[in-house]
Give the backbone structure.
Amino acid sequence: NINIYNMKQIINILIITVLLSITNNTFSQDANVTIKGKLLNNFYSQIYLDNVLNDIEIANTTISTEDEFEFKIYLERSDYYRLRLDNNAYLILILAPGENVTVEYDINNSYSSKITGSEGSELFYETYSDANVYAEQLAEFTAKIEKDKKDYYKKTIEENPKSLASIIFIDELDIDSYFSTYQLLAENMQEFYDYNTYAKQFIDKFNASKYTAIGADAPDISLTDKNGKIVKLSSLESEYILIDFWASWCKPCRAESIYLVDAYNTYHSKGFDIYSVSLDKVNADWIKAIADDNLS
């Protein structure tokens, strides 16, 4: 008789045998597809290849210090695949057996990526790239209509600054582009309707927005530096100051660090400075990040 322990052993052996069979079928046969790639604007260290329909990772590899990678795999038939850096950064590939594929993947703009050696993938991205012309034309037309509509609201408000109806119209305009219209309406609401709840809410909103509107003086931020010393924004005497909000866990923010350092080194002597504001909750995290990114 086979006891329960022996039965479990037999089942485990069968499972391992099946898994090895599947693995050998995928990887042990001679590779018939090669994917060589170059990443632009890269800050990742690992890249993965998935089967899209099965949602299964079939291979992964380390990205070189030159931002290059290579896959050699065996495929039985054409299918959809995903060249993945993370769940938000990936390329869709339509691969077929026998293809030697080269990829230039721009992480900041995946549809501008260049793919050769894969007929399905080339058709996919070339078509989307060509069709983007229509999207641009539509965007230009839509922007013009939207601008005309906002200008109409602006004209109506400025012709009727004492009307409570104008408070409703003003929500169609952004304060940065139509600051003078906001100011005109706020002054009239203050003068004639300081008793009205909606008018008072609009006045409060306008007064608060004045501090962050384009062209307004920035609030005087006070934060501690890596040594615990309080540094005020107003203490910087440069003519041009970039206020940079970032965090150690924000990969795109960290990727921009090299460009910020370059800009600072190039233009600091000409009156340019950077006031960097970390959104990290733990000081040690951003202190380590600025050391790793050669920030000061």
